Amino acid sequence: MSIPRHLRYTWDHEWLVVDEGNATVGITAFAAKALGDVVNLRLPEVGTWVEAGESCGEIESLTAVSGLYAPASGRVLEVNAALADDPGVVTAAPYTVGWLFRLRVENIAGALSADAYAAHCAHTQGDRR
Known about the structure:
By secondary structure, this protein is of the alpha+beta class. Helix content is 20%, strand content 38%. The strands form two sheets. Strands 1-2-3-9-8-5 form a six-stranded antiparallel beta sheet. The longest helix is centred in the last third of the chain and has 11 residues. The two termini are 16 Å apart.
C-alpha cells in the first residue's frame, strides 16, 4: 500500500495537505480498500464549520457506511462536485481526483506523519513486524 509522504494523516484514515492555509481532504488508500466500492457520499456543505476529529459526513459502500471525520478545524470552501456523478473515484484514486473537500484551516490537531500512519495501519492489520 502506497502512503504518500507529503500528506498528513488521521487515526480515522483521512488525509490532508495544507497549502497557504487551505487544506485538501480525502480518505486514504487503506480506508478505500477496506470500504470497497463507494456508492454514495454525504460531504459537508460549503460554508459550514467542521471541527477536528468530529464527524462531518458519511461514505457509503456496497457493504458498509463509514463516518467521515474532519482532520482539521475550519470552514469548508469547496466539495469535489465530480463525486456526485461518480463516487467510485474515491476508491479508484483516493489521493488525486478522489479528494473530498477543501477547507480554510484554523486548527490541525493530532495529524500523523506518513511513517506514523504506516505504523498505525500495520497495527490495525495485526502486522506487528
